[in-house]
Amino acid sequence: MATLIDIKNLNLFYGTFQALKNVTFTIPEKAITAFIGPSGCGKSTLLRTLNRMNDMIPGTKIDGQLKISGTEVYSNQVDVETLRKKVGMVFQQPNPFPKSIYDNIAYGPRLHGITNKAKLDEIVETSLKSAALWNEVKDHLRRSAFGLSGGQQQRLCIARALAVNPDILLMDEATSALDPISTLKIEELVQELKNNYTIVMVTHNMHQAARVSNQTVFFLNGEVIEYAETDKLFTTPKDQRTEDYISGRFG
Ligand SMILES: Nc1ncnc2c1ncn2[C@@H]1O[C@H](COP(=O)(O)OP(=O)(O)OP(=O)(O)O)[C@@H](O)[C@H]1O
């Protein structure tokens, strides 16, 4: 699998607190990479560096290399709007806009200058189909997104991210607020999406990482302890700390 994201000696500080320490690994394209580790180990921080969401946190300092498709993400030349279009994000709590289902999906494309109704209709349909939601909502696209169930809202948020045609989808514990059936649906959906997108997911749920991902990265105290194919990491971890974590001895 070709490398899409190349991280080398990445350090991140919140003020004087160092949240990421010398992080080095690569993320392959069109695969699912899971970040696991105990609370506070830096998983979400690293995820947010990938589309520069940390830029919004005052006092954040970052050094080292973070390249996506060979381009340094933290270079002055990078247009953050364009970066965030290419690197979409789905959060823990479904966060649809207070708008109709249709307008939630059309929001991003409109922002990027698409006004043609037929084109928007097509994007809405394709995105909802890709997020496995179309059949459930196609007859009431003008209804408020708030009328959907939590699991449907999360698939709507995935559809909204897909509508601007990203390469990468970041998922920050995107199923932790959902019931088991909705979680399973999203896990199945993510398996489909990896055919066309590179997925990076933070999960607290080791079973989910083991079920869904191709690669797993184990973090502890801001450091990458182990990075391996998911099967290998869960069956024959190389580091004792990984073994202790996956066997439930801490965290
Ligand atoms: N905005 C912030 N300002 C200061 N410190 C922060 C900020 N965000 C996170 N941290 C600290 O950085 C460390 C890493 O946090 P992060 O949220 O990345 O961990 P995490 O592994 O995703 O945790 P969790 O699984 O609980 O979400 C923690 O010690 C946290 O307290």
UniProtKB/TrEMBL annotation:
Keywords: ATP-binding, Nucleotide-binding, Transport. The lineage of its organism: Bacteria, Bacillati, Bacillota, Bacilli, Bacillales. This is Phosphate ABC transporter ATP-binding protein PstB. One of its GO terms (molecular function) is ATP binding. Signal peptide: none annotated. Pfam families: ABC_tran (PF00005). NCBIfam families: 3a0107s01c2. CDD domains: ABC_PstB_phosphate_transporter. It comes from Paenibacillus yanchengensis. It comes from the Bacteria. SUPFAM superfamilies: P-loop containing nucleoside triphosphate hydrolases (SSF52540). Residues 5-246 form the ABC transporter domain. Transmembrane segments: none annotated. The gene is pstB. The keyword Cell membrane does not apply.
